[in-house]
Design goal:
Strand order of the largest sheet: 13-12-14-15-23-22-21-18-19
CATH class of the largest domain: Alpha Beta
Shape: globular
Number of strands: 23
Largest sheet: 9 strands, mixed
CATH topology of the largest domain: Rossmann fold
Number of domains: 2
Strand content: 15-25%
CATH architecture of the largest domain: 3-Layer(aba) Sandwich
């Protein structure tokens, strides 16, 4: 039987449950335990696909086309697993399912209530993932904070599961935050006590408490929490703020959380092997030369909007023993002050995805700057489309060229709505979503990166390159190097006679892993690392001293 670990959060939101869940999954995997992961989101949206990134951060796309919470990105990167849309359940999905069944008469005329109908639907979704994944353990994150009204049905559902599955099959973890009072220079446990009391009033008694803090937690604090929250001292886990989230699995292992879970759930485990993760963290912490990469986007004020892009750049930098410094540049700011003042010192530029006309002209100006100054450029989804628009305007002589998303009446619609999207009226879940094959058709950066003729990448888009203009673009050196197998959709384009100008219609950032960077990000960062910009200098041989000492790029 699949066993369950349920992780709740208290005191404040954004306390680190997602990274904690991903880290627990990693600890179990490194003990030979098969794992799947699940995020329960109490909001009423069916999925985050129609939400602004400023509301919810990045929309992470699964292989089967699920538009999901960004925490699934953490799960995939840490555990190195490909999840499906079964791994994200929202209150909107649950209520829609229950109401749909009621309209069909499936409840035999009964009164529909939160208990048992809503809670049963939640439990069924959890058990469906267990059945489909056939995992030894499912690690379940309950979104939100204990005390939120919308989260109560989810907490009631996971409470019932210990009774149904048995005490040796369910493990509850509560992630909380210890605030620091600077006036008295002490950490306060009272908010944690109240949060656990609220959880206990629902009927959930945590087996372990993970205590997040920006300061060191001493043994006296742990003992106090143990007494007031009724958990053993060795189940009070300290998790300080660290410079890299990839340190968290090692901290939890040092706190012996993995052993506590194993003994409580009576798991069959192998000798733990965290050598690969230790090597990864050692590499991250080792001093490295800095490489400045600009991410030019619409939502840069909230970095979580592009968290997979940021992580993919980090992974690629580690491959070359470089510290990637991400410069967050708002595309609207480029519209106001120009590209030169904001991009003069960066060694590479990434333009990620997005929707709507705001800031697009700044992205197009960014492409022109990268093209004119031979700065390595990687365009992702919208980043490909603005690359096409720039070249149409400035190399093909189509000054009014545009995407029909931004200008439906443009005389040169070089980016147009996909044929299968015409007539689609609903927004949610109706884009081209999930994994699709791509045929690499030309010797290129893409062919060098992948080393394979057929690749599979994740998509999330409605608009595409307009094949009507294909010959014109080829004439000025913008080549389609990746196509759908039926040759109808262009997936990758590259500009010749440029150090690196590559655009993809898909989202390669979703497949990057800390120990296995995505091939396109790897090649991009490799070229960027050899690019010398304003204020930079090529590294000299090791051992150079004095005026010849190595200077960071």
């Amino acid at each position: 039987m699949t066993k369950m670990i349920f992780v709740t959060g208290g005191v404040v939101s954004s306390v680190g449950k997602g990274v904690s869940v991903a880290s627990i999954g990693r600890l179990l995997k490194d003990r030979g335990v098969s794992v799947s992961l699940l995020k329960l989101d109490p909001y009423l949206n069916v999925d985050p696909g129609t939400m602004s990134p400023y509301q919810h951060g990045e929309v992470f796309v699964t292989e089967d086309g699920g538009e999901t919470d960004l925490d699934l990105g953490h799960y995939e990167r840490f555990v190195d697993i490909d999840l499906t849309q079964l791994s994200n359940v929202t209150a909107g999905q649950i209520y829609s399912e229950v109401i749909s069944k009621e309209r069909k008469g499936e409840f035999l005329g009964g009164t529909i209530q939160a208990i048992p109908h809503v809670t049963d639907a939640i439990k069924q979704r959890i058990m469906k993932l267990a059945e489909v994944s056939n995992a030894d353990v499912i690690v379940v994150e309950v979104g939100g904070t204990v005390g939120d009204i919308e989260g109560l049905p989810f907490l009631e559902a996971i409470r019932q599961m210990r009774r149904e599955l048995g005490k040796d099959s369910v493990f509850y973890i509560h992630v909380t935050f210890l605030p620091y009072i600077s006036a008295t220079q002490e950490l306060k446990t009272k908010p944690t006590q109240h949060s656990v009391r609220e959880l206990r009033s629902i009927g959930i008694l945590p087996d372990a408490i993970i205590c997040r803090s920006d300061h060191e937690i001493d043994d006296d604090i742990k003992t106090k929490i143990s007494i007031h929250c009724d958990v053993p001292v060795d189940a009070v886990i300290t998790l300080p703020t660290v410079s890299s989230v990839y340190e968290v699995p090692l901290i939890l292992e040092h706190e012996r959380l993995g052993d506590l879970i194993n003994s409580t759930l009576d798991l069959t485990v192998q000798d733990r092997d965290l050598a690969e993760w230790h090597n990864l963290v050692d590499l991250i912490q080792r001093p490295k030369r800095t490489l400045s990469i600009a991410v030019v986007g619409k939502y840069v004020d909230l970095h979580d909007s592009y968290i997979s892009v940021k992580e993919a750049l980090l992974h690629a930098g580690l491959h070359f023993d470089r510290e990637v410094e991400v410069r967050w540049v708002g595309s609207e700011e480029i519209e106001e002050v120009g590209a030169e003042s904001l991009l003069a010192s960066v060694s590479g530029i990434v333009v990620p995805g997005g929707f709507g006309p705001r800031g697009v002209e700044g992205m197009i100006e960014t492409v022109r700057y990268a093209r004119d100054h031979e700065v390595p450029y990687l365009g992702l989804c919208l980043g490909l489309q603005v690359m096409v628009i720039d070249i149409a305007r400035n190399l093909l002589g189509f000054p009014a060229a545009n995407s029909t998303e931004f200008d439906p009446d443009t005389p040169h619609p070089v980016i147009d709505l996909m044929e299968i999207q015409k007539g689609v009226t609903e927004m949610g879940g109706t884009m081209r979503l999930g994994v699709y094959p791509c045929q690499v058709v030309r010797e290129s950066w893409a062919s060098k990166a992948y080393g394979d003729d057929v690749i599979y990448e994740r998509h999330r888009h409605r608009w595409e390159f307009n094949n009507t203009f294909r010959e014109e673009f080829e004439a000025v050196g913008l080549w389609p190097v990746g196509m759908s197998p039926d040759a109808k959709l262009i997936e990758i384009m590259e500009l010749e006679n440029h150090p690196f100008m590559v655009g993809t219609q898909f989202h390669p950032e979703f497949l990057s892993r800390p120990n296995r960077p995505h091939p396109l990000f790897r090649e991009f960062v490799g070229v960027a690392g050899k690019t010398v910009r304003e204020g930079g200098q090529r590294p000299l041989p090791l051992g150079a001293t004095g005026s010849n000492a190595e200077v960071q790029a």
